[in-house]
Structure formats: structure tokens, C-alpha cells
């Protein structure tokens, strides 16, 4: 019995070593590559060497996402108190990393702006109002927003929204004024201005939410969203424009399900949508980032292992865990799970390498 157990252990050890040797990567190198694919939210207006996020960045974390308020206590500051404090925090974060850290935020305007006017930042109107005021107004608006981000040390904005305002009752995009309009022409015109102004300040823009969230009835923050009967192929037109004109750095997936595109999984976890449609058909070569993987559309239906395995294999390059809606996920949990799945041959190491190459190219590393 003892001898059999020893043989099994040696066999497993040989297989693991063979896998890693064949790819010429050590366990530590693979763990660092996995870490680079992760964006985490954390608590704290400043950080020190004892903080988990400090250790995570030292371990190779790819990025952070910042929020103004703690969702469990709206009176409590999470990361942003004012401009001076934020600049100090982002400087601290970047100083920990040996390479460029993706420091991100949701700053669209209107209801979605983590940098508030009462904290010393410029106020930005919601997208639907910006579109009503014309191109010159939009250019000035997003110039000021981009300048605020650069001065605060933020290098990535999860904006603009390029969803079409197809469903007037859509509660997550349309009724909140997050879309520039009903037509792709309107959306392309104003989102292009937004992207251009961010680029002038060396800020990475993120188009969202692929393959389109503007026709949905539900909110993927709260649960499962089925767009099978409402989605229209014209929702892809903004993505086609940005990809064709080489104006897109990053695209964010949506946690929406469309059985005509994938009979089993929502977009974030779908190889059919993220690789066959976005990569192969539309020709996107940049970084694909997931929407928050703790949103209930995902976390209520998939465990961590399933979520990580499906999203990475689908073609997602960066995994976002905002740590806003649920029990915080640690970098170690993510890395250990992915590494184990690589050893089990459930996740291709090639996907990890390819994602790192895309991230490095985008970050200018």
C-alpha cells in the first residue's frame, strides 16, 4: 500500500515537472504570469508593507480598481477621499511594482463616477446629456475628465460605454443615461471623442460591455441576464469601428447570455463569443477584461474554479475581482486555483502566456 502510494506521488511529480519543463517555466514564473492577469479591488486610502494589497503587488498583481465609497457603508471612504490623497495613494501603489501597474477606475460621468465634484474633481454629465450638447462640449468634457485622471495617477478608465440605447426600459444602461444614443453613429461619434481625450493623457480606455448590454431587461449585478430575444447584431457596430480603425486598447465583456451566440455560457465565459466572434470574426487583438466576476450573474451560477477556467479558456486576458459585492477574493486563491487547473490540463498554459504578451504590449512593457 505504502509502495503504491509512493509510486503515485513520484508519477504525479514527474508529470508536473514534465509539464513545466516542456514549457521552460518554473512554478514561480507561472504564478507571476497568472498574477499579472488579475485586477483586484481593496480597502484603504493609503497602504503600507503589512497590507494584503502591498504583498499582492509584490507578487506580481497586474492591476487594481479604485472606488470612492465602501458599498456596505456609503459613509465610509474606500479608496478616494480627495485629489491630493488619491495622487499619494496611486504613487504608493506604483512604487511597489517593478513594472507598470494598471491603476483603474470607473469614471464615465453621471451616476458612474467614483471621482466626485465634492471631493475636488471635475463633474461630468451622463453620456446621454453629453450627446445632446454636441461634439465641442463632449471634447471639452472628456478633456477635463482625462486630465483629472492623469493628475490623480490613474492610467486606466473603464469607459466609454458603447452600448446602444435600444431598450428604453433597460435599467442598468439606458434609464441611467450611460449610453450616448440609440444608433451606432451617435455612440461611435461621442465614444470616439472620449477615447481620443483619454489617449491624449496616456490613459487606457475600455469599451464596454461586449457584445452589447443596451437591449437587456435585467441587471447583471443582480443576477442572470438573458438577451437572446432582445439582442441585435447592430450592437457590434461600435466594436467593429474601433477595431477596424485601431482605436481600442481594451474591451470589457458583459455577463449576458444569448443562446444564439452560445447555448451554454454567458459572454464572459464564452469561447464562441470571446474568441470566435470577437477575436476571429471581428479581428480584436488587444486585451479582453472581464466585468466584475463577483457580480451575481456569475457568482450565483459558477464557483471560483469554474469561473476562472471558463473565462480564461474563453479568451479573457484580465480577470476583474472588484471585492465590492461579496466576500473578498484573495490573489492567492485565484493563483492557486488557476495553477492547479493548469497542472490538471483544464487551463492551457498557452492562454496564460498569450494573455501576458497582450497585457505587456498594452502597458508598453
From TrEMBL:
Recorded hits in PANTHER family, A to Z, give:
BETA-HEXOSAMINIDASE, BETA-HEXOSAMINIDASE-RELATED
Q: Describe the family membership recorded for this protein in Swiss-Prot or TrEMBL.
A: Belongs to the glycosyl hydrolase 3 family.
Q: What is its EC number?
A: 3.2.1.52
Pfam families per UniProt: Glyco_hydro_3
The GO annotation for biological process reads: carbohydrate metabolic process; peptidoglycan turnover
Instruction: Recite the lineage of the species.
Output: Bacteria, Pseudomonadati, Campylobacterota, Epsilonproteobacteria, Campylobacterales
* Protein name, per record: beta-N-acetylhexosaminidase
Domain called Glycoside hydrolase family 3 N-terminal: residue spans: 32-359
Amino acid at each position: 500500500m505504502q509502495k503504491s502510494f509512493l509510486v503515485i506521488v513520484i508519477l504525479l511529480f514527474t508529470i508536473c515537472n514534465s509539464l513545466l519543463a516542456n514549457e521552460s517555466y518554473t512554478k514561480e514564473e507561472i504564478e507571476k504570469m497568472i498574477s499579472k492577469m488579475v485586477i483586484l479591488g481593496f480597502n484603504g486610502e493609503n497602504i503600507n508593507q503589512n497590507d494584503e494589497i502591498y504583498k499582492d503587488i509584490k507578487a506580481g498583481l497586474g492591476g487594481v480598481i479604485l472606488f470612492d465609497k465602501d458599498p456596505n457603508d456609503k459613509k465610509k471612504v474606500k479608496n478616494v477621499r480627495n485629489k491630493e490623497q488619491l495622487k499619494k495613494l496611486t504613487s504608493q501603489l506604483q512604487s511597489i511594482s517593478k513594472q507598470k501597474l494598471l491603476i483603474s477606475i470607473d469614471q464615465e460621468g453621471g451616476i458612474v463616477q467614483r471621482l466626485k465634484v465634492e471631493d475636488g474633481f471635475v463633474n461630468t454629465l451622463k453620456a446621454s446629456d453629453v450627446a445632446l450638447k454636441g461634439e465641442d462640449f463632449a471634447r471639452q468634457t472628456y478633456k477635463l475628465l482625462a486630465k483629472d485622471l492623469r493628475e490623480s495617477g490613474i492610467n486606466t478608465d473603464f469607459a466609454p460605454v458603447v452600448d446602444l440605447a435600444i431598450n428604453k426600459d433597460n435599467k442598468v444602461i439606458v434609464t441611467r443615461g450611460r449610453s450616448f444614443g440609440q444608433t451606432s453613429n451617435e455612440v461611435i461619434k461621442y465614444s470616439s471623442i472620449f477615447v481620443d481625450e483619454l489617449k491624449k493623457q496616456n490613459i487606457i480606455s475600455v469599451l464596454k460591455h461586449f457584445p452589447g448590454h443596451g437591449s437587456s431587461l435585467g441587471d447583471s449585478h443582480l443576477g442572470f441576464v438573458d438577451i437572446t430575444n432582445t439582442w441585435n447584431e447592430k450592437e457590434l457596430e461600435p466594436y467593429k469601428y474601433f477595431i477596424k480603425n485601431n482605436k481600442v486598447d481594451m474591451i470589457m465583456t458583459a455577463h449576458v447570455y444569448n443562446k444564439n451566440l452560445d447555448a451554454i455560457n454567458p459572454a464572459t465565459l464564452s469561447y464562441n463569443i470571446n474568441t470566435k466572434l470577437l477575436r476571429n470574426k471581428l479581428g480584436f487583438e488587444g486585451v479582453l477584461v472581464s466585468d466584475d466576476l463577483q457580480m451575481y450573474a456569475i457568482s450565483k451560477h459558477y464557483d471560483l474554479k469554474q469561473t476562472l477556467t471558463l473565462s480564461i479558456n474563453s479568451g479573457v486576458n484580465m480577470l476583474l475581482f472588484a471585492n465590492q459585492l461579496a466576500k473578498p477574493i484573495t490573489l492567492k486563491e485565484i493563483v492557486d486555483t488557476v495553477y492547479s487547473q493548469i497542472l490538471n490540463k483544464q487551463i492551457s498554459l498557452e492562454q496564460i502566456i498569450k494573455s501576458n504578451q497582450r497585457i505587456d504590449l498594452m502597458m508598453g512593457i
